[in-house]
Design brief:
The protein is of the alpha/beta class. It is built from nine helices and seven strands. Helix 1 packs across helix 4.
Length: 228
């Protein structure tokens, strides 16, 4: 029986994946490194320490890598975060999960200060039982550390939790932690790319509308694309 729902935030509750990608592109450009938006966009959802060497010559523990990562954070918080909006039904979904007795924990690759603002934007900061960020994990997604930290916060075993996420990296991190996944298309990935999820829905509004039929007690379900 599922007792806890772990929730990714970027691309799952908040429409922020494009903004993260553009912040990375601009930060690299300021350091003379030209990276295509599309290449960065497909890697949003994994930790920045893993994204950086995939699209550039840099590692995040180098001096220039640290400068790029810090500039990305500045650009995101100053230029993009104030314009972001939650996906329809994000807060209502968390409220519904709470009403059904589930423990709810954020499981995000964002830094703690960034995560705090994203949760407030989604209007779920007062609803969640706990939250975990990249500050709580040694390794970022798709490594399972953040999921393991969220399980500890929830006080449940892997088989008693399910993750709601939007990227292949969420699915991989959860799988490696022994946790099943419900995936959302709203983050920008298609059903083939979300293979491995126990269920695929358009977004929070879609899952909310079909919550009683969702695989929160182990039954597989795939919502037809475009349902709302």
């Amino acid at each position: 029986m599922i007792r806890a729902v772990l929730l990714d935030v970027d691309g799952t509750l908040v429409d922020s994946n494009d903004a993260h990608a553009w912040a990375w592109v601009r930060a690299f450009a300021e350091h003379g490194i030209d990276v295509p938006f599309e290449g960065v966009r497909r890697l949003i959802g994994m930790g920045g320490d893993k994204l950086m060497p995939r699209v550039s010559r840099l590692s995040e523990d180098s001096d220039e890598g640290r400068e790029v990562a810090e500039r990305r954070r500045e650009l995101f918080k100053q230029d993009y975060l104030p314009q972001l909006r939650p996906f329809r039904g994000a807060a209502e979904l968390v409220e519904a999960l709470k009403a059904r007795g589930f423990t709810t924990v954020a499981a995000s690759s964002a830094k703690k200060d960034e995560l705090k603002r994203l949760l407030a934007l989604a209007r779920v900061h007062t609803l969640l039982d706990a939250q975990t960020s990249s500050d709580d994990a040694e390794e970022s997604k798709p490594d399972p550390d953040i999921i393991a930290a969220a399980l500890r916060q929830a006080g449940v075993a892997p088989g008693e939790a399910i993750l709601i996420g939007d990227t292949p990296y969420d699915i991989e991190a959860a799988r490696r932690a022994g946790v099943a996944t419900i995936a959302f298309r709203c983050g920008g990935w298609n059903d083939h790319e979300l293979t491995g999820a126990a269920a695929v829905f358009d977004g929070p509004w879609d899952l909310l509308a079909q919550l009683d039929e969702a695989p929160l007690v182990g039954r597989p379900h795939v919502s037809a694309k475009g349902e709302s």
